[in-house]
């Protein structure tokens, strides 16, 4: 029997004691029926706990039934603070909306890396900001960071406009605050350890990111960022 792996992102009750578990896997989203999943004594608690990464064997039914499983990693402890609960809520919402035709293997690896960063790094807002900016590539609404969105000039880029989704050159704006453009460029393109990314006012950055998702993807993550 083939063994699969995935991250549990949600579950719902099914009939009297079972659950349907939703996972994100290296091949996309999947639903699994866990029989007697609500009964802790059945030994299935690990397979119904959100944020558990599991390996599992399933049946070949239209709605596959979980045959056996074991927990690879548990990220439930991430929800130990209000700030991290907010971050997890946003991450799960982004995962649930990942387009079907995405590179799921690449996405999955990045999500697991993000959860590890969230587990091990004290700067929750920094981890979340990096995740959200890089996930724009998966959603196909790439910010235009290498040329002016107005005149396509590639020189003298001085500002990043959230509303227009890209950089503006000195000829197309009076705003010459380059800090925002530099941060978005670094966080979008660079591949390095989370601690090596430049620190900034992450409340302000997340507000900008929330506006970007709302304007360009109609995904409201701002509701999770409230006080």
Structural write-up:
- With 227 residues, the chain is α+β, with helices and mostly antiparallel strands.
- The protein has two domains: 4-74, Nucleic acid-binding proteins (OB fold (Dihydrolipoamide Acetyltransferase, E2P), Beta Barrel); 78-224, Recombination protein O, C-terminal domain (de novo design (two linked rop proteins)), CATH 1.20.1440.120.
- It has helices at 45-48, 82-96, 104-120, 124-139, 179-189, 202-217, and strands spanning 4-14, 18-25, 28-34, 52-58, 66-74, 144-148, 157-161, 166-169.
- The strands form two sheets. The chain has a five-stranded antiparallel β-sheet with strand order 3-2-1-4-5.
- The longest helix is centred in the middle third of the chain and has 17 residues, at 104-120.
- The model has no long low-confidence stretch (mean pLDDT 92).
């Amino acid at each position: 029997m083939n063994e699969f792996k995935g991250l549990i992102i949600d579950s719902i009750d099914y009939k009297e004691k079972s659950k349907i578990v939703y996972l994100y896997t290296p091949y996309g989203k999947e639903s699994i029926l866990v029989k007697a999943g609500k009964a802790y004594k059945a030994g299935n608690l690990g397979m119904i706990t959100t944020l558990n990464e599991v390996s599992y064997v399933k049946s070949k039914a239209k709605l596959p039934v979980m045959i056996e499983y074991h927990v690879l990693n548990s990220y439930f402890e991430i929800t130990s603070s209000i700030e991290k609960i907010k971050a997890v809520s946003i991450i799960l919402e982004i995962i649930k909306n990942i387009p079907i035709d995405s590179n799921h293997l690449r996405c999955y690896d990045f999500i697991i890396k993000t959860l590890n960063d969230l587990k091990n790094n004290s700067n929750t807002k920094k981890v979340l900001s990096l995740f959200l900016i890089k996930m724009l590539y998966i959603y196909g609404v790439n910010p235009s960071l290498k040329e002016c969105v107005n005149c396509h000039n590639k020189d003298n880029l001085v500002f990043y406009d959230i509303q227009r989704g890209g950089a503006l050159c000195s000829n197309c704006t009076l705003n010459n605050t380059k800090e925002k453009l530099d941060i978005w460029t670094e966080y979008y393109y660079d591949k390095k350890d989370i601690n090596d990314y430049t620190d900034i006012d992450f409340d302000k950055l997340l507000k900008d990111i929330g506006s970007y998702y709302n304007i360009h993807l109609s995904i409201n993550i701002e509701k999770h960022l409230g006080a």
